[in-house]
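User: Predict structure, ligand adenosine-5'-triphosphate.
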Amino acid sequence: MGEELTDSSVDETGQSFDDNLIHDVSFEEVEHPISDGNNTGAKPRRLFDIPRSTPTEEGLARVVTVTNQKGGVGKTTSVINIATHLAMRGARILVVDCDAQGNCASGLGVDKSKTTITTRDVILTPAISIQARHATAVEGLHLIVGDHNLVGVEEALAAQLGRERRLVEALAPLRPHYDLILIDTAPSMSIVSVNALTASDGILIPVQTEYLALEGVALLMGTIQEVRRLLNSSLGVDAVMMTMHAPTLLNTQVAGHLREIFGNLVLEPPIRRNIRLAESPSQGVPIQFHAPQSHGGQDYSLLASELEALWFPGGLRT
Ligand SMILES: Nc1ncnc2c1ncn2[C@@H]1O[C@H](COP(=O)(O)OP(=O)(O)OP(=O)(O)O)[C@@H](O)[C@H]1O
Ligand SMILES: [Mg+2]
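Assistant: Predicted complex:
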């Protein structure tokens, strides 16, 4: 994608913040707006700002949350396959599953029923994080397992001070030991998702090139601005990736709009809709083990290489 993460200034509170990194984006009317016979709603009318992310602090893992409040857009599939590709390239990766559905475990060959410490425990008791990691089917890739107990966290934290910063605390002792910490999130903005954004340097946004995709992205930009204002002023967008892409007119037009809006933040290629990606979790292995030569395998491999260049501009430590 070519865009380098740029330096930011440090303000009097010691936090990175640079207004120059915020790009205004405007939408122009096109001659032939998308139409599926009705109104697809695929083209947003309002403006939104795209906060850009800043480089990782030397010697610490980059923390990246994969998020989109829209459900079923390929967040978990992307976490599993990007993490696997980078681990196979030699990066030390930790995946933190912040979704009560807990699907990262099956996708990475971890038996959830055998885990004792999960993301819920880590958020409630951050000091436990080092013991919460599990090995996976992929060498160099560790997982903190999410499970249905995450649903009750909101209530358990209700009276706690600093409840949005639990994951910051939990990841602090882990960051020197990894190159990348990738966080999978649920399709909702719960206290757990807010913890993920508060602990992150950057955000990776999977967007399905489909009906109403851009409205979901506009909603997410509003959330990011709120988190920046209140909790984590250096949070920014690392990249946008297109998922479940098919060669239809609608998919192609939505992809075009995303490229227009996000410019070189958009990763190429789009991930094609591919049955091999959908069946991989049932095999308990990522696509790189199940069907590396499938369209899904090839697309994720190319896209993860783009992310490797973005996240590790100096190359991976060997
Ligand atoms: N490129 C693809 N082609 C075909 N199927 C896909 C593709 N990407 C993901 N899927 C399948 O689509 C479904 C939704 O994907 P996934 O679980 O990754 O989305 P999600 O955004 O994490 O969902 P949720 O919001 O519920 O957490 C899954 O069954 C997955 O296997
Ligand atoms: Mg998911």
